[in-house]
Structures are given as C-alpha cells and as structure tokens.
Amino acid sequence: MKRKSVFLVALVAFMVFSTAKAQINLGEKALGAVQKGYTGFTFSNEDAAKLSKEAVAKMDAEHVIAGPTDPYTVRLNKIFGKYTKAYGLELNYKVYVIKEVNAFATADGSVRVYSGLMDVMDDNELLVVIGHEIGHVVNKDSRDAARAAYQKEALIDGAASQSGTIAAVTDSQLGKIGSAMIDSKHSRKQESEADLFAYEFMKKNGYDVNAVESAFSILAKMSEGAQSDFLTKMMSSHPDSKERAENARKRAEKDGLYKPYVHQTPVVTPVKTTKPAAKTTTKKKTTTKK
Ligand SMILES: [Zn+2]
C-alpha cells in the first residue's frame, strides 16, 4: 500500500514535470494557467504606466512625503517645476523625506527625489540626477524594468494567471515590484545613454554642463566614504561613478564647455509664514529616522 502511494506520487510528479516541459515546448496554445500569466500576456506601454503608477502609489503611502510648503518641496518646485511637460511626458514629482541618497523615475512619469540626495547636491547637480532618471523613462528603460519586475513576480507566484492582466497583482507583489523598479539594474549601455541624456538636458536648458561631472564625483566620493550607508542599492550599483564623471568631463571638453565646477552649498529657503497654515506639519525635519 505504502509503496503503491509512493509510486503514485512519483508518477504524478513525473507527469506534472513532463507536461510542464511539454507545455513550454508546445507554445502558447498548450500553456497552463500559471505559465499563461508569464508568457501569454502582452505588456504595453500603458500596462507599464499603470503598474508603475500603482507601485508608486504604494511607495508614496509608505514614505514621509514633504508637504507643499516644506523647504524641500519649495526648492524642487523652483528647480524642476518647469520641466514636468517635457519630452511628451506628463511628469509628477514628490520629495521623500528620508536620509538616503536616491532618486527614481518610473514609466508612468512619477519622479521621486529623496531629501538625502537634495542635501548633498546643489541645484545643478540635482537636475543632473533627475535628468538622468528621466532619461531612463524617455529611453523606455523604466518600462522594461517594470516589465521585468512584473514578469519575475508573475513567474514566482503565478500572478495574473487567469486573466493575464496586470490588475491581478496582489498588494505584496506590488510592493516587491516597486522595490525592484527602484533597485533595477540597468545595463551599462542604458546607464551611459541616460548620462548622455542628462548632459544634453543640461546643455539644452542653458545650465553648466560641468555639474554632470560634479554630481557623479559626489556619488563616487560617497560610495568610498563613511556615507556609503546612505547610498541606496540603486546608487551604489553605479560603481563606475568615477568613470562616468570622467566621461562627462571629456564630453564637456569636446564641446569646449569645460571648466572646473564649483559646487554650491544647497540653498534651502526657509518658508515664510505670514499666517499659520491650515496644515501645521513642522515636525518632519527632525524625525526622518524611521
Ligand atoms: Zn541610471
């Protein structure tokens, strides 16, 4: 009896294994429900945008967001506010009040800048980093990252196995997809293209292109120093910051625009409060440790 059931289990296991294998070989028609979610779906730009938007909404809910009158927001408005409708994109942006040095942009046009990054970069350098992130969106790297993150989750948990649409992603999967999108490692080629994008962005809009070299030098210095803890995975996965700084310098030299960049101390304009605002959220600045 016992032997029989062991045999049965083995047989079933073999059958499952061989059919699974056969399904993959037979193509889409024979795909089982689980695989269908992975290989049988089409992942359009709209899907990427929708998924990204949901993932960002979840991340927003999990972070302390600088309010409209917060000095970080005021500063970012001033620096970046006028570029939300560039490159056929509809960008929205927010500051996460967190010590980490990071920024990211997702396929739906959400730009999130960490206050830790704003603390170490001056206005020009900050635009370089944001420009780099937007470069990933414009170049569709962010779409591909969203797709890859989704595929990974769908493959592991059989997400969207029935419908093959991204709506079937669970909340915890959405969280994982969000983190994967932030940490996504783009290829070297994608990175240097985004760097070029940032450089061109600065040049086109009349900024000092030497801020590109400076921004990457700051990241290079940080990754070597004691502050490396605050560099997120995404930033530290750019181990070649030094090289990228050099590339930016060479580019500026070639353009005849090179001159040593003088890093400005980030100016944080204190908010003028003529009358007490309805929302009195003033505790944020000192309680970033979470
Ligand atoms: Zn990048």
TrEMBL record:
<feature type="signal peptide">
    <location>
        <begin position="1"/>
        <end position="22"/>
    </location>
</feature>
<feature type="region of interest" description="Disordered">
    <location>
        <begin position="235"/>
        <end position="290"/>
    </location>
</feature>
<dbReference type="Pfam" id="PF01435">
    <property type="entry name" value="Peptidase_M48"/>
</dbReference>
<feature type="compositionally biased region" description="Basic and acidic residues">
    <location>
        <begin position="239"/>
        <end position="257"/>
    </location>
</feature>
<keyword id="KW-0479">Metal-binding</keyword>
<keyword id="KW-0645">Protease</keyword>
<feature type="domain" description="Peptidase M48">
    <location>
        <begin position="90"/>
        <end position="251"/>
    </location>
</feature>
<dbReference type="GO" id="GO:0051603">
    <property type="term" value="P:proteolysis involved in protein catabolic process"/>
</dbReference>
<dbReference type="GO" id="GO:0004222">
    <property type="term" value="F:metalloendopeptidase activity"/>
</dbReference>
<protein>
    <submittedName>
        <fullName>Peptidase</fullName>
    </submittedName>
</protein>
<keyword id="KW-0378">Hydrolase</keyword>
<feature type="compositionally biased region" description="Low complexity">
    <location>
        <begin position="265"/>
        <end position="280"/>
    </location>
</feature>
<keyword id="KW-0482">Metalloprotease</keyword>
<keyword id="KW-0732">Signal</keyword>
<dbReference type="InterPro" id="IPR051156">
    <property type="entry name" value="Mito/Outer_Membr_Metalloprot"/>
</dbReference>
<feature type="compositionally biased region" description="Basic residues">
    <location>
        <begin position="281"/>
        <end position="290"/>
    </location>
</feature>
<dbReference type="InterPro" id="IPR001915">
    <property type="entry name" value="Peptidase_M48"/>
</dbReference>
<keyword id="KW-0862">Zinc</keyword>
<comment type="similarity">
    <text>Belongs to the peptidase M48 family.</text>
</comment>
<dbReference type="GO" id="GO:0016020">
    <property type="term" value="C:membrane"/>
</dbReference>
<dbReference type="GO" id="GO:0046872">
    <property type="term" value="F:metal ion binding"/>
</dbReference>
